[in-house]
């Protein structure tokens, strides 16, 4: 049973059947490399069977800590950047709501995200939002030394210590980090924080189904066992199935063929605001995995229908190097009938008798046709509903697709050497110890840009 239907009807006029045929041997090879752990970066492929082998003790520990946070605090601040926050945020929105914090039932814990920027304003505003509510902190960093997260943690630690004293603060901190190494691990061990582990064999952007994403999800009351079961089902569906019954391979193949025809930007679009962060998570997954060696599809996103009224014009008539992958949700959790009015002063009587979701779905169908006619290939990933199982499988689907896709490009999907460039420049300009020789150089450069 699969929770995902991959629909390539919208690329029929752009991709010929024989083009899929020709790619099949390479796809099969990439699939073999990934699952036999023989491809580039294979040390970072533990995610492929992570959910199906999930350690029960780890699960209990995550649940114990989630309960502790729920009992202790009205607010959990999740500090992390990139893969150390996007997965949790996307899961929260997908399973609960972008307005999760405003829709809580009595006694539930609010969740805010910090450490994903360096903005003084954002940090001060969040501290004001927390106000005098009891709070706990989950600081997440695989490397343990990412500046944004580490610096933010310093501020929240100070706020905790001012409120609860040193010991009280320690009792409200959970550090999710490497098992053995890194600054955060050392600090956690010395101070005595509760800790959870980011496994060695899973990179940040593939870590949503480790403690990184699972603890915040559990605090929000999401059934993490069901999410894991969904990912395990994904493994079963895509691991060894051949092309004709393997949606992940079909998606990877479609993207690659389109790329070779000049469609070098992919828009991940959805019609549900609760999927906006799904696209943010996906952008990191795709961009950091594939964008190397001057290759790769540029990942972008659109939220419909709002973006049709902003850059929809570009999608329809701008440069023809775009294709779209639309995540379509077939059944919304609850629908609304369009209200009936006797006077029809707004001219919307033609929508009476329909539900709001029917209007949404029809708009999605119409936009697909318009975009295809405008020269934008249109792929769809259809899910029946937004539940835990589907979320787990969707995560697996995109993770596997991008790994296959990168192998087709001859790229290591699991490293991110390019992100070091900005860090070197920033550290040199901030005069971080160890960057003395670059410091002067970058300061000179700054004068000339
Ligand atoms: O968990 P960490 O080590 O703080 O890293 C956060 C993010 O930063 C990156 O390492 C890029 O610098 C991402 O790959 C990662 O998801």
From TrEMBL:
Keyword line: Cytoplasm, Gluconeogenesis, Glycolysis, Isomerase
Statement: the UniProt record of this protein carries the keyword Cytoplasm: yes
Principal location class: cytoplasm
EC number: 5.3.1.9
Active site residues per record: 288, 423
Any one Gene Ontology molecular-function term assigned to this protein's record: glucose-6-phosphate isomerase activity
Enzymatic reactions: alpha-D-glucose 6-phosphate = beta-D-fructose 6-phosphate
Entry keyword annotation includes Cytoplasm: yes
Pfam short name (any one): PGI
Pathway(s) of this molecule: Carbohydrate biosynthesis; gluconeogenesis; Carbohydrate degradation; glycolysis; D-glyceraldehyde 3-phosphate and glycerone phosphate from D-glucose: step 2/4
GO biological process terms, semicolon-separated: gluconeogenesis; glucose 6-phosphate metabolic process; glycolytic process
Subcellular location per the Swiss-Prot or TrEMBL entry: Cytoplasm
InterPro entries referenced in this protein's UniProt entry, alphabetically: G6P_Isomerase, Phosphoglucose_isomerase_CS, SIS_dom_sf, SIS_PGI_1, SIS_PGI_2
Entry GO CC: cytosol
Top-level EC class as recorded in UniProt: isomerase
HAMAP family noted in UniProt: G6P_isomerase
Role of this protein: Catalyzes the reversible isomerization of glucose-6-phosphate to fructose-6-phosphate.
Protein family per UniProt: Belongs to the GPI family.
Protein name (Swiss-Prot/TrEMBL): Glucose-6-phosphate isomerase
Organism: Fructobacillus durionis
